[in-house]
Amino acid sequence: MSTQEELSYKSTCSYCGVGCGLIVKKDKKGQISLKGDPDHPVNKGMLCSKGMNLNYVVADDSDRLLQPQMRWGKSHPLEKVEWDIALERASAVFKSIIAKHGPDAVAFYVSGQCLTEEYYLVNKLTKGFLKTNNIDTNSRLCMSSAVMGYIKTLGEDSVPISYEDIELADCFFVAGANPAWCHPILWRRIEQHKEENPEVKIIVADPRATQSCSIADLHLQLNPGTDEILFLAIGRCIIEQGDIDLSFIKNHTDGFDAYRDQVMTTTLKEASEICGVSIEEIKLAASYIGNAKAFLSLWTMGLNQSADGVNKNLALIDLNLITGNIGKPGAGPFSLTGQPNAMGGREVGGMATLLACHRNLNNPEHRKEVADFWGVDKISPNPGKTATQIFEGLEDGSIKAIWVICTNPLVSMPEARKVENALKKARFVVVQDISNKNETIPYADLVLPAAGWGEKEGTMTNSERRISHLSQFKSPPGEALPDAEILIQFAKKMKFSGFEFNNMAEVYAEYCQLTKNTNIDISGLDYDYLKHQGTVQWPFLNKTQGGTKRLFTDRKFYTPNNRAQILTSGLKNSYEKATPEFPLILTTGRIRDQWHTMTRTGKVNKLNSHIPSPFLEIHPDDAKARGVKEGDTVLVSGLRGEVRVHAQITDKIKKGMVFIPMHWGKILGNDFARANNLTGNSLDPVSKQPDFKYSVVQVALYKTV
Ligand code: SF4
Predict the structure, then answer these.
(1) Which of 76, 332, 438, 522 fits a disulfide with 433 by CB distance 3.0 to 4.6 angstroms?
(2) Half-sphere exposure of residue 190, counting CA atoms within 13 Å on the CB side?
(3) Could you tell me the distance, in angstroms and rounded to a whole number, from the CA of residue 137 to the centre of ligand 1?
(4) Is residue 465 exposed (0-12), middle (13-18) or buried (19+ Cβ within 10 Å)?
């Protein structure tokens, strides 16, 4: 409720994919405070440390980009320019490159933090009007393997569950995820459920004993990279225990016979040796899952960020399918999205390999449907370049210009030196961001100041398909503009028709119509309803029926024959090989109180105090063998670069592997703290998601404490 003294707004946290609801208050002096929305179905008033400190980020404009800046030549400094000159230059360069080298010589690289309207516009601009599918997103780095896992097994990229299923499940299998730190409020709900129902079983599979293991009944501390073998071994035990759902398998799936043959090729003894998990632990996990009335599997980067990411997804989803744990309360395969709007981006086709509303880029009819809707002659059949391929294209010269929106690839992309090299070779780099701390700016020819969270209106979709409206409660500083506004103005400079929007409600209304008659249909939704109702889950056909909590309750899947596909991969191992020179396996990940490359969370003292500096987790035996003591500075070297960080010696990590957080980069930390100096560019062949979890390295003492 707003008064003259204080204004009140509803919004959604802009960090992780949990999507917690907020109530933001602004007093008459303009000071912002916030709290968790007690009526919000996701967080019921709770917030984690990142969410509850968002007001400090919004209040501090000291690092904000305030005006467009342009370089008149590669050796010239960035100079402030008018918006009109900046966008004129961008359109002139894009036109000239496309005329000379074709549309695939330009690319956009965007972010899972973009609002759905922004994602929709940039896809319309590139795929519809610039005639290239070279539009990819940093969501490629977190969940494209899950997208392919869902498409292959269920027919479309559709998360079948609702958060309400948490309180209805009696067994959780958390694989390759640390939700206690990375999805804290969702984890809090699991904790509460376990506190109230101690018989609920929680299994965690992770080579590290993370915070999420603290309430686990079983921690499967597997060897890095062996997840798929572990899941298949558990599947074998479930079959041998007689705990499969034969009726569901027979009536609603294909592929079980091949699956059974596959899992029987590896004995439990072999699987136990490969995975470093005892036969008893494998059997116990299988009995927990097999005896559950409602089984929920949860996963994220630990499976997705892998050269075998899709296969790992398939093997985990198989456990839900062979036990019939899908389309019923408390059950389903649940991929946790990392970013706040990774899901919204997927809906509008915000990746190089997707088309809007789960349409298929390879399908000529789907391309025609979207082209007709946008009033353009065609959409190119050429697959677009994915995240790492875009930077390779810049490096080899096939891509000349890149437009980076709301992301910091120099810190977040694998093999950072390669990204640096690619940006140096690019003919034209546009960086559109809120912060002058974005490490990509020194390579930019054009810098465009964008509005941040709370300074623009729009929508996002969280991990459970829940769409929420985010209110504007603050003016952008300086001349910063909402990303959507910048894209619309650029499109107009390019003389494209179809961008005559007066506000975000009109953009969203257009997108909603494109969803009509698809499985994510929200054609009956509008901003007024969203603002009034707060949130809805897609599909949403009309206001009478409302949204959809759970998919596949009729056991009809989105595959051509409506049957789910139980799929196996054939157990490839495409990881780097450890050598005497580089004998340790590096995995990277997040810490509790930082978000991505710290451009926002790094501004908050309270958050920095949790873990103030980058570190290397190393097992006591590996540390001792190298003469390393707690707190020493170590040199971590690999095939692609080096990192110098403090050693944190812990038996919570498996012997033979080490861990470095991914957050620190050049400016906020220093070059030598950047974990992605060490990671490689190997991709899952199907999802094109890079592997951040398996790089071979060596550790040596650099300086004692
Ligand atoms: Fe924000 Fe995620 Fe924390 Fe919720 S759990 S407050 S969405 S960071």
Answers:
(1) 438
(2) 29
(3) 21
(4) buried
In the prediction, which pLDDT does 671 show?
Answer: 63
Residues 116, 506: Cα–Cα separation, whole Å: 13
Q: Which letter does DSSP use for residue 445 in this model?
A: S
Q: Whose CA is nearest to atom 3 of ligand 1?
A: 48
End-to-end alpha-carbon separation of the chain, Å? 55
Residues 649-697 have pLDDT tens digits of 999 999 999 999 988 886 444 567 899 999 987 899 999 999 999 999 9
At residue 533, the pLDDT reads 84
34 strand-pairing partners: 24
What span, in angstroms and rounded, lies between the C-alpha atoms of 51 and 15? 7
Gap from CA of 522 to ligand 1 centroid (Å): 25
Read off the pLDDT of each residue in 258-282 and give the average, rounded to a whole number: 97
Measured between alpha carbons, how far is 583 from 575 in angstroms, rounded to an integer?
Answer: 13
| Rounded average pLDDT over 378-399 | 96
**Residue ranges of domains in the chain, CATH in brackets:** 6-59 (3.30.200.210), 69-136+344-453+478-501 (3.40.50.740), 142-335 (3.40.228.10), 584-703 (2.40.40.20)
Residue 519: DSSP 8-state: T
Q: Residue 122 carries which DSSP code?
A: H
Q: Which amino acid would we find at residue 265?
A: T
CA distance 650 to 398: 46
Q: pLDDT tens across 102-153, in order? A: 999 999 999 999 999 999 999 999 999 999 999 999 999 999 999 999 999 9
Supply φ then ψ for residue 373, to 5 degrees. Answer: -60, -40
How many CB atoms are located within 10 Å of the residue 578 CB?
A: 16
Write out the two tokens for 359: 């349409």
Quick check: 20 and 51 in contact, CB under 8 A? yes
Helix, strand, coil percentages, rounded to 5, for the chain: 35, 20, 45
What is the Cβ-side half-sphere exposure of residue 39, based on CA atoms within 13 angstroms?
7
Q: What is the DSSP letter of 163?
A: G
Q: Any residues with CB less than 8 A from the CB of 495 and at least 6 apart, and which?
A: none
Give residue 479 CA to ligand 1 midpoint distance, Å: 29
**Distance between alpha carbon 327 and the CA centroid of its chain, in Å?**
24
pLDDT tens, 168-181?
A: 999 999 999 999 99
Which atom belonging to ligand 1 lies closest to the Cα atom of 43?
4
Residues with CB under 6 A from ligand 1: 13, 15-16, 18-20, 43, 47-48, 50-51, 183-185
